[in-house]
Write a structure and sequence with these properties.
The chain is an alpha+beta fold and 210 residues long. The chain folds into 2 domains: 87 residues, Glutaredoxin; 109 residues, Glutathione S-transferase Yfyf (Class Pi), Chain A, domain 2 (Up-down Bundle), CATH 1.20.1050. It has 8 helices and 6 strands; from the N terminus they run βαβββαββαααααα. It has a 4-stranded mixed β-sheet, covered by helices on one side. It has a two-stranded antiparallel ribbon with strand order 3-4. The longest helix has 29 residues. The structure holds glutathione. Glutathione binds next to α4.
């Protein structure tokens, strides 16, 4: 059985949504962290060497990085049609969105949530946080426009794992002065994704309310 290692509302949320949408047989394992280190399961660093969530174990295969896990699940369960199929243009868009959302957008959220990882002094932390917020405000507007052009779903006009990743970062964006879900297209996208029965189950399993 597949195992997904997670913490509620974390970067494991989109992979969790992918597994539930796929109808996969999987077990959720909550990671326990103390003083910034995972303590349970005890071998967690063997699965995810940075000690972060998510990690996914599928038989002999161990993988991590939330965007990679989403694409892995999309390819692993082709019958669930969570990926782009074989069309090269759709695959290109699928790779592009996952990569952009993780290496640019998610990275800015991490700077906003934990500026102390980048700099030491309080004034530098405030500056890193403010810069990240400024970039995320511009990113919000740009993605909102892209969603309108794309017809409401990121890849090929239909639901895919990329939409689950976007909904995850939209939720993180509730902490900004102008919440991401306040933008018209991002808001309707978030509601469309989170009203899916599989995603409602995911929110219930993780104990999330918004
Ligand atoms: N790029 C990684 C980031 C994972 C990550 O930073 N996860 C956070 C939760 S959202 C975490 O485990 N934080 C604990 C820590 O960094 O010590 C991914 O997307 O999987």
């Amino acid at each position: 059985m597949i195992k997904l290692y997670y913490l509620p509302g974390s970067a494991a949320l989109a992979p969790h949504g992918c597994l539930e949408e796929a109808g996969a047989d999987y077990e959720l394992v909550r990671v326990v962290r103390e003083n910034g280190r995972p303590t349970e399961p005890r071998n967690y660093l063997d699965l995810q060497p940075m000690g972060r969530v998510p990690a996914l174990v599928d038989g002999e295969i161990v993988t991590y990085e939330s965007a990679a896990v989403c694409m892995y699940v999309g390819d692993r369960f082709p019958e669930a049609r969570l990926g782009p199929g074989t069309d090269p243009a759709a695959r290109a868009a699928w790779y592009r969105w996952h990569t952009y959302l993780t290496n640019t957008v998610q990275a800015d959220f991490m700077r906003m949530f934990a500026p102390e990882r980048d700099v030491d002094s309080d004034s530098a932390k405030a500056e890193v946080e403010a810069c990240a917020k400024r970039r995320l405000a511009a990113t919000r507007d740009w993605i909102d426009g892209e969603l309108a052009k794309a017809g409401g779903y990121l890849v090929g006009g239909t639901f895919s794992t990329a939409d689950l990743f976007l909904a995850m970062v939209t939720r993180w964006g509730r902490r900004l002065d102008e919440p991401w879900w306040g933008a018209p297209n991002l808001g309707s996208h978030y509601r469309r994704i989170t009203s899916r029965p599989a995603i409602q189950r995911v929110y219930e399993q993780e104990g999330l309310e918004d």
